[in-house]
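Researcher: Next sequence.
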Amino acid sequence: MSKGPAALIGWLGLLSLLLVIIAGIAITLSGFSPEGEESMGFIEAAWKSLMRTLDPGTMGGDTGWGFRVVMLLVTLGGIFIVSTLIGILASGISNKLDELRKGHSFVVEKDHSLILGWSEKIFPVISELIIANENRKKPVIVILASKDKVEMEDEIKLRMPDTKNTRVICRSGSTIDSNDIDIVNPHEAKSIIILAEENSDPDICVIKSILALTNNPARKKEPYHIVAEISDHENREVAEMIGSGEVTLVHTEDLISRVIAQSCRQSGLSIVYTELLDFDGDEIYFQKEEGLYGKSFKDALMSYEDSSVIGLTHPDGRVIVNPPMDTVIQEGDEVIAISKDDDTIKLSGTSNYNINEAVFSTGKEMVMEVEHTLVLGWNSKASAIIRELDNYLSPGSTLTVVAEGTDAEELIRELNKNLKNQKISFKRGNISDRKMLDSLGLEKFNHIILLCYSDSMPEADADSKTLITLLHLRNIEEKTGHDLSIVSEMMDIRNKELAEVTEADDFIISNKLISLMLSQLSENRQLKAVFDDLFDAEGSEIYVKPITDYIRTGEKVNFYTLCEAAAGKGQIAIGYRINEFSHNVDKAYGVVVNPKKSEMIAFTDKDKLIVIAED
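Model: Next structure:
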């Protein structure tokens, strides 16, 4: 018994066989047989004994007392031995089914996308991977988390009833235990995404998961493709050190802080980022194009009808976004392009772009002025947002923080010592209190940033407080007639539809942006260098600028004309925003990324051009 069911089954099976053989020999040697029948041979006697061990009712029709006694003994033996064997077999099968239900069985699939951990971010990640897998044959997503397998499967079915051609497999276990991780076959996985679980110290769990993978004695020789999220900058260096080049990290607070800081000054920018990061639309691809070798980067910009070139990657791995326009494309270089798919990046072959130089704007671009920003609410990302904003503002700018609690006030005092271009003031108050909002004089602020209290209350409550504040702000806007530029952070994408009634200029859905970044990097780790450049205050970033900085409005032009106008300023035009649809969700808030370059469109003075530029 101490050796488990397998040993029990073996011994009971042997005893059952021995019982049948002994009974068969006894009947053969004694000559016992049913009345009126001849003596049986060993084979026939053993067969009848076997039937009586399996079914006690078989002996009911036996005749002849000698034969009856032997069959009674065989039947009694069958009751105790064979029945026990059947019981153990049934119990073993039941235990195995229970084990399968709990999600502890080995995953035999290969070339799968593996997700370690469980949080709200997992649903956008799965959704994006499903879209990315549409052109693959029998794709599989495997999930390992410290959660019941059936619960995980039920939640996924509820949130994503249609997984198209992708199969989702769930397993229960610890994401920091090498033995549990081995269950999901990480050594055969195409990519591994490590999610920070919702606990007091998520970074430590992520680091332990990386260690469990990279230091596994049975690990594969080839490098893993691991993408992990990390929140604390101090933990980032540790994670990179133990990852040894196998891990691509997404610094979550840094990413959201930069997007909020950039979006608050440029309405619609978060829509552009979302378009580039999700798989349902245009994405960023890398492609070698021999037809461009020896030509300038500006020539490459105009060479595609349905794709927008944004940079180059060199054979040594260097990635340059928005290089100088006269950069010559060398053999081995790859173009970095925004396109609907990798097979849509095709040279147009045309040389007649119908560029209308007569509409080029001769006016100077707007000079940066002193700006006044209002931050409502506070969380762990607020300090990083303020520091990031300081990179874009003119000297003499101001920033006012209104929040509850004492932590914010103390941190602001420290921030004020290191900021160059802005001065921060603090006011304690409840951001969802209408009287307090009325007292702020909102019309004097150029930008309003509304942050979730995600550190001090549950996500649902934090989003609810944000929604109430948004409704108050829009009501104040209607009564005063003063347009407010509002960027609001929300945690859960499901609350975005409720908040759209407030017509905020931008919604930064933290969980979704992080999920999109993780999904993109899991499919192509080369994108990390591109995103680092685009999100960094140094180098080139995405800007949403007045279209009047480039052309005179009121006349139909094609996008080739806009590309040429932007290239003359050392910038890359990648799209535009139509002001008329800036609050229309069905029109993507007026944002169009990577338009067909030959299509003619008339712009107004309020429309914007989306460019990649250094400032």
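Model: Residues 65-102 form the longest helix (38 residues). The chain has four domains: 5-102, 113-245, 266-362+539-613, 372-510.
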